[in-house]
């Protein structure tokens, strides 16, 4: 059989239509499309894709089942490795992980692994296939801090091993960045996230919301008073960064975290009580996935939207797919532009963004060519809102209240790469709290490793 | 879900809720706040804790009707449930971190404006329980808007009530009372804690600065998550940007940039008012175009 070099295309909402709604952009494969795409997989003897997956899903294994239309079996294979396949199939950067090393990518398109994973997870959900509660039980109790990607993964894996697991979540909904950060049009909340969280609960995991560990209860109290034998810190990234330029405290300047939380977690777009500012013309500063999410949200709320990024297109940290979608929807890119000042009117409201043009100089320590300002090239973009999407720095609440927890100089928790163990006995950590802001799947990988680390630790106790 | 053990209207537009929230009640300290979300559509509303009872596991908050969520909240009765209560958040009052023996030698003045009487109360009460009687000024518009008078009288050293219109107690703004106490009545204060509307705290600080009284204020800016994630609550304090939720809510009042904070606080006023109107007027209300408009999502 001849190799099929082109992947089966996936249906998407028309860009003009979707720019005005919050429904999911990508519609996913149909059964026929999924089977057709699955047939492209060569089922390599030594699959490279598996090694590139942070949670090491048996990718050819599940794809073979899809090829044979054994969708439940495909789901069972994925479930051995991942508790959040419908999420990962949507938001993982497959192009720089599993799909990057697919042998087909040498000659044509890699197998569309992400879209197949998503198909299997969606099929399972729509057909009522759910993971079963494990038969084994162990006496020891583990507390997991944060119901985001790393916490849910760690909790799910520990529950499968038979531990009694309780997640403490600071917000009023479980999901972490999956509910407050990533917008509905990329990751549906009720249909996808809530269902995958339920699946984790089905494994026996209990989730207590509205508990800010470090404030409502300390890690020491969890261990000494509430009987937990081990604790996993998956509290995520924290405080949004700002640029420190004039005008940044003006009304109409938001962090991407604030803007997205108002819209996603608090559902401002659905006419809930929480207000959101719907600008006429909005500038988003930054070039990551979060910047794309913020820009595409502002666009859907009715604003003409501009992305301002100091490097060139090649250096944009966002996924290629997200940049492509943003452009299709009509977002304007001001590349090699850096803000120098936010212009403010008499009422302290934003009236514009002053930017300076940049040129790429020598590579810096990150290996990327360093942008340098071109003197005298400043110009103004008239806008009535500015969204800063420059990343986050770690949240101080847990380190400030936990004795004996070593931190890096960037205030991240120090944890062993393989086991997640911290400097405090019985306390493990993973995800953005350790790495600084990274991806959903890397956080899940860390949660998975920590689950193994916790199991090894508790088995010896 | 969190049980409302007691709901009570204090004055027009201001009500008190005593809520069962054992985790918060167990560890909270004067000066800290909590976030409350009434129901699925509700906003996350930050409120300073007005009282707590470790035995019964309850916390007390005092709420003013401002937007749609607080308007719906006003209808809560004893025995109803609130969807979310999370806390304590922020840092405890500076006072309770100080050396107690040292503190006993100091003269402390609290200045409460309007709703500010509620967050001032647990601090005065805490001092009283530790053998320190502080002077308290409670200022309010008129006799009918005064709250917490009896409670405050029970724990304060001297209580000075003042009304803007002179209908009860002294006549005039809290700043005038500070001046009277210091200049005419020979009072000396080592610390002042001023809590109330932003504009009142601004002028209270200008007044105490005249007399070199170190002054702490408790800020209640815009906030979403309350855990350091959104940055909506950022305020400029002595040229530094601070997050009220994790760095505050109390700050050195003589360093806070009140003018900027006042303007930031206005950001969603139009929208909040409109949402509240929608509830009051029902479907008869039509949104107008303009800043912060939600006309696009008309149903």
Describe the structure.
The complex is a heterodimer of chains A (461) and B (299). With 461 residues, chain A is α/β, with parallel strands linked by helices. Chain A is 33% helix and 16% strand. Chain A folds into three domains: 15-126, Orthogonal Bundle (Fumarate Reductase Iron-sulfur Protein, Chain B, domain 2), CATH 1.10.1060; 141-238 and 403-460, FAD/NAD(P)-binding domain (3-Layer(bba) Sandwich), CATH 3.50.50.60; 240-392, FAD/NAD(P)-binding domain. Chain A has helices at residues 15-18, 31-38, 48-52, 59-67, 71-79, 85-91, 113-126, 149-160, 177-180, 189-202, 219-224, 256-263, 289-300, 320-328, 397-401, 432-435, 440-460, and strands at 141-145, 164-168, 206-208, 230-233, 239-240, 253-255, 281-285, 304-309, 332-335, 337-344, 350-363, 369-373, 379-381, 385-388, 392-393, 427-429. Chain A has a five-stranded parallel sheet with strand order 3-2-1-4-16. In chain A, strand 1 (141-145), helix 8 (149-160) and strand 2 form a beta-alpha-beta unit. In chain A, helix 2 (31-38) packs across helix 4, helix 4 (59-67) runs antiparallel to helix 5 (71-79) and helix 12 packs across helix 13. In chain B, the strands form four sheets. A seven-stranded mixed sheet of chain B has the order 12-11-10-9-13-14-17, sandwiched between helices. Chain B has a five-stranded antiparallel sheet with strand order 5-6-2-1-7. A three-stranded antiparallel sheet of chain B has the order 4-3-8. Chain B starts with a strand and ends in an 18-residue tail after the last helix. In chain B, 48% of the residues are buried. Mean pLDDT of chain B is 89; it is low at 283-299. Chains A and B meet through strand 5 and helix 12 of A and helix 1, strand 8, helix 9 and helix 10 of B.
């Amino acid at each position: 059989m001849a190799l099929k070099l082109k992947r089966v295309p996936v249906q998407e909402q028309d860009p003009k239509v979707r720019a005005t709604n919050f429904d999911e952009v990508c519609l996913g494969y149909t059964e026929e499309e999924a089977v057709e795409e699955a047939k492209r997989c060569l089922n390599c003897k030594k699959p490279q894709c598996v090694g590139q997956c942070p949670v090491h899903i048996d990718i050819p294994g599940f794809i073979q089942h899809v090829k044979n239309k054994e969708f439940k079996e495909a789901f069972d294979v994925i479930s051995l490795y991942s508790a959040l396949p419908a999420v990962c199939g949507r938001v993982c950067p497959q192009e720089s992980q599993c799909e990057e090393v697919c042998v087909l990518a040498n000659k044509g398109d890699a197998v569309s692994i992400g879209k197949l994973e998503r198909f299997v997870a969606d099929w399972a959900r729509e057909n009522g296939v759910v993971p079963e509660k494990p038969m084994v039980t162990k006496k020891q109790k583990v507390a997991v801090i944060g119901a985001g990607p790393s916490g849910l993964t760690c909790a799910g894996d520990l529950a499968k091993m038979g531990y009694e697991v309780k997640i403490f979540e600071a917000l009023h909904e479980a999901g972490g960045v999956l509910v407050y950060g990533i917008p509905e049009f990329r990751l549906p909340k009720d249909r996808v996230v809530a269902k995958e969280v339920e699946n984790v609960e089905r494994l026996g995991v209990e989730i207590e919301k509205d508990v800010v560990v470090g404030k409502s209860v300390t890690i020491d109290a969890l261990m000494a008073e509430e009987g937990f034998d081990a604790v996993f810190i998956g509290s995520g990234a924290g405080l949004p960064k700002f640029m420190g330029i004039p005008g940044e405290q003006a009304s109409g300047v938001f962090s991407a975290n604030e803007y997205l939380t108002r819209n996603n977690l608090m559902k401002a777009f659905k006419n809930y009580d929480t207000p959101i500012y719907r600008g006429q013309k909005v500038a988003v500063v930054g070039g990551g996935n979060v910047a794309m999410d913020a820009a595409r949200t502002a666009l859907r709320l009715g604003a003409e939207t501009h992305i301002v990024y100091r490097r060139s297109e090649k250096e944009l940290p966002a996924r290629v797919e997200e940049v492509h979608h943003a452009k299709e929807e009509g977002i304007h890119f001001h590349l090699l532009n850096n803000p120098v000042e936010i212009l403010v009117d008499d009422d302290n409201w934003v009236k514009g963004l002053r930017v300076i043009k940049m040129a790429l100089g020598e590579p810096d320590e990150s290996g990327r060519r360093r942008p340098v300002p071109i003197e005298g090239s400043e110009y103004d973009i008239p806008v009535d809102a500015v969204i800063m999407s420059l990343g986050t720095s770690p949240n101080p609440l847990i380190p400030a209240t936990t004795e004996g927890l070593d931190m890096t100089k960037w205030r991240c928790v120090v944890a062993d790469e393989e086991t997640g163990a911290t400097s405090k006995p019985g306390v493990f950590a993973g995800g953005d709290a350790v790495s600084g802001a990274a991806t959903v799947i890397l956080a899940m990988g860390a949660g998975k490793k920590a689950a193994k680390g916790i199991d090894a630790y508790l088995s010896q106790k | 879900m969190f049980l409302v053990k007691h709901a009570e209207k204090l004055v027009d537009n201001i009500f008190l809720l005593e809520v069962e929230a054992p985790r918060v009640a167990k560890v909270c300290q004067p000066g800290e706040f909590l976030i409350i979300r009434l129901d699925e559509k509700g906003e996350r509303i930050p409120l300073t804790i007005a009282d707590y009872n470790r035995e019964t596991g309850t916390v007390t908050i005092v709420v003013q009707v401002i937007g749609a969520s607080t308007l719906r909240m006003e209808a809560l009765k004893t025995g109803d449930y609130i969807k979310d209560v999370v806390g304590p958040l922020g840092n405890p009052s500076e006072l309770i971190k100080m050396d107690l023996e040292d503190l006993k030698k100091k003269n402390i003045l609290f200045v409460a404006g309007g709703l500010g009487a509620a967050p001032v109360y647990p601090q005065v009460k805490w001092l009283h329980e530790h053998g320190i009687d502080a002077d308290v000024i409670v200022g309010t518009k008129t006799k009918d808007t005064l709250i917490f008078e009896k409670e405050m009288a029970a724990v304060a050293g001297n209580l000075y009530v003042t009304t803007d219109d002179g209908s009860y107690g002294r006549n005039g703004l809290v700043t005038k009372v500070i001046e009277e106490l210091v200049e005419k009545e020979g009072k000396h204060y080592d610390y002042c804690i001023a809590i109330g509307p932003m504009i009142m705290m601004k002028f209270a600080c200008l007044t105490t600065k005249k007399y070199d009284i170190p002054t702490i204020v408790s800020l209640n800016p815009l906030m979403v998550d309350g855990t350091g994630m959104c940055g909506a609550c950022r305020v400029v304090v002595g040229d530094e940007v601070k997050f009220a939720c994790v760095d505050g809510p109390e700050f050195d009042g003589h360093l806070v940039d009140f003018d900027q904070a006042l303007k930031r606080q206005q950001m969603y006023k139009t929208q909040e008012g409109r949402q509240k109107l929608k509830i009051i007027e029902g479907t008869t209300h039509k949104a107008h175009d303009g800043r912060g408009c939600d006309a696009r999502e008309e149903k």
